[in-house]
Specification:
The chain is an all-alpha fold. The protein folds into 2 domains: 50 residues, no CATH class; 51 residues, no CATH class. It is 72% helix and 0% strand. The longest helix is centred in the last third of the chain and has 31 residues. The radius of gyration is 37 Å and the shape is elongated. The N and C termini lie far apart (84 Å). The relative contact order is 0.05.
Length: 139
């Protein structure tokens, strides 16, 4: 089976670093012989590899390995809230909404709450509210 460009591109870096051996190396060589685009990419990778090898090695600052390992080993916080925290947040939001509605009705009175209701509903609610104002009145 003949190698396609996608398969060849996966092997180009290994070949540029002289890490590819055996049948894969031979198959890649056959593909490069017939594909100008992959051959050009391979030549650019080889030049990059030569440039990288020609640069002097850089010494890491003292203690960087220890600091990196400590950061890697540090426990990570979960991305999402644990279930109990999500439930607590939902309770707080629900309580806030309820409190806001109740406080809004207390501050503005029932007339404000029913002002956008149809007249029949408003009249019925006013009768109910009037009944609650009397001693012993219940809904």
């Amino acid at each position: 089976m003949e190698m396609n460009c996608k398969e060849a591109r996966r092997l180009l870096v290994a070949q540029a670093d002289a890490e590819l051996r055996g049948e894969q190396a031979a198959e890649l060589a056959r593909h490069l012989a017939g594909c100008a685009a992959c051959r050009a990419e391979f030549e650019a990778l080889k030049q990059d590899a030569v440039l990288l090898r020609s640069e002097p090695a850089v010494e890491a600052p003292e203690g960087i390995s220890r600091a990196a390992l400590e950061r890697i080993r540090r426990p990570r916080r979960p991305l999402f809230l644990p279930v109990w925290q999500a439930a607590a947040a939902a309770v707080v939001v629900a309580a806030g909404l309820w409190f806001g509605i109740v406080l809004g009705n207390v501050l503005t009175g029932p007339e404000f709450a029913f002002r956008n209701c149809p007249p029949a509903v408003r009249a019925e609610m006013q009768k109910l509210m009037a009944g609650l104002d009397r001693p012993g009145g219940e809904m």
